[in-house]
């Protein structure tokens, strides 16, 4: 009997070790690469320097219209397929173009977490340049959004290394929301229906604001009302460095852009634009989401803004946007 028990134990141990090895084999390495970086793989340099490359650059490298200085949606890097090594395969966003005359029709492949995680690899294999242009034009908006979603996922993962449960607990208690707030943020102001979280260094500033009001009608999702509400709240709660100065929405030369989105399962109006400090030469970009907490019958706005004079703003806006994307209603 003792020998039988030892035998069974050995089998179970072997099964556990085997399962453990298989689990380790299935674990993908963390994806790498700079924020908002997209690696484009082409068959050769001629493709990248010609109309195919021009088409990709024009769309994925288009300038963001809601920043104070020109910055592209993605910073594009290109290599030929022949030098597409394992080291490059762990980058988080990869777009592959193949022109194969032996194909009878185009083939589209979209793979999540193929070689690393989080990652998206999109490949368009087409029988001709003309066929590539057709396929790319048809679904380019979808491709762009997929790559943007990977950026959000990757930033959330990076932020999650060092969070502040105490601030999350405060948000649950006073605002009925849960949000992953990274280390460095602190509560600058908390008032009735409003909270301002800040992360300040010598060279830049980040902020998260949450405010709400009772729901009355759908007009509260109207863009004009959203800006009116924002300006009223910011004037009351976010002062500038000089007496009488305060944060406001800039409408010249860039008017805010609005879009209907789904934020963690909830309908929301996304607003992107520029803020400025009335009475001071300060400003920068912001992003906000106006949604509804149905159980509390509240219209709640979650906003992130950045201040980085002379520096790139797109990666910073991505960071505060990613924080907002962790929001969950707690009731």
Global Rg: 24 Å
Helix content: 25-40%
Secondary-structure element string: HEHHEEEEHHEEEEHEEEEEHE
Biggest beta-sheet profile:
8 strands, antiparallel
- Strand content range: 25-35%
What is the β-strand count?
15
Structural class: alpha+beta
CA-CA gap between termini: 56 Å
Question: Mean pLDDT score, rounded?
Answer: 91
**Low-confidence regions:** 1-24
Summed up, the helix count is 7
- The backbone outline, from C-alpha atoms, is elongated
What does this structure look like?
The protein is of the alpha+beta class and 331 residues long. It is 33% helix and 32% strand. It has seven helices and 15 strands. The strands form three sheets. Strands 7, 8, 9, 10, 11, 12, 13 and 14 form an eight-stranded antiparallel beta sheet that branches. The chain is elongated, with a radius of gyration of 24 Å.
Keywords:
331 residues; alpha+beta; 8-stranded antiparallel β-sheet; 5-stranded mixed β-sheet; 15 strands; elongated
What topology does this entry show?
Blueprint: H1 2-26, E1 37-42, H2 45-49, H3 51-60, E2 75-80, E3 93-99, E4 107-112, E5 120-126, H4 129-159, H5 165-175, E6 177-178, E7 186-191, E8 194-200, E9 205-214, H6 223-237, E10 246-250, E11 257-263, E12 266-278, E13 283-293, E14 298-307, H7 314-324, E15 328-329
Parallel strand pairs: 1-2, 1-3, 3-5
Antiparallel strand pairs: 4-5, 6-15, 7-8, 8-9, 9-14, 10-12, 11-12, 12-13, 13-14
Helix pairs in contact: 3-4, 4-7
């Amino acid at each position: 009997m003792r020998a039988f028990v030892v035998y069974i134990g050995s089998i179970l141990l072997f099964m556990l070790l085997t399962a453990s090895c298989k689990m380790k084999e299935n674990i993908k390495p963390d994806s790498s690469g700079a924020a908002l970086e997209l690696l484009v793989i082409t068959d050769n340099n001629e493709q990248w320097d010609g109309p195919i490359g021009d088409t990709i650059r024009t769309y994925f490298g288009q300038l963001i219209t809601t920043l104070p200085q020109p910055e592209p949606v993605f910073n594009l890097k290109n290599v030929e397929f022949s030098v597409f090594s394992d080291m490059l395969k762990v980058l988080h966003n990869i777009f592959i173009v193949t022109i194969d005359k032996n194909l009878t029709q185009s083939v589209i492949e979209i793979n999540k977490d193929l070689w690393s995680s989080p990652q998206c690899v999109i490949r368009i294999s087409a029988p001709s340049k003309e066929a590539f242009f057709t396929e790319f034009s048809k679904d380019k908006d979808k491709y762009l959004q997929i790559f943007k979603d990977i950026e959000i996922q990757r930033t959330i993962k990076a932020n999650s290394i060092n969070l502040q449960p105490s601030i999350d607990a405060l948000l649950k208690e006073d605002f009925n929301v849960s949000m992953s707030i990274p280390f460095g943020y602190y509560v600058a102001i908390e008032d009735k229906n409003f909270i301002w979280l800040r992360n300040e260094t010598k060279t830049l500033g980040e902020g998260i604001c949450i405010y709400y009001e009772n729901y009355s009608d759908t007009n509260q999702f109207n863009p004009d009302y959203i800006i009116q509400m924002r300006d009223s709240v910011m004037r009351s709660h976010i002062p500038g460095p000089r007496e009488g100065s305060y944060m406001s929405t800039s409408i010249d030369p860039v008017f805010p852009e609005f879009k209907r989105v789904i934020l963690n399962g909830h309908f929301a109006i996304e607003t992107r634009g520029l803020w400025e400090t009335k009475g001071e030469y300060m400003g920068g970009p912001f992003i906000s989401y106006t949604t509804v907490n149905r159980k509390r019958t509240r219209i709640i706005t979650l906003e992130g803004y950045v201040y980085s004079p002379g520096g790139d703003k797109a990666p910073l806006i991505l960071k505060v946007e990613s924080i907002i994307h962790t929001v969950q209603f707690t009731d």
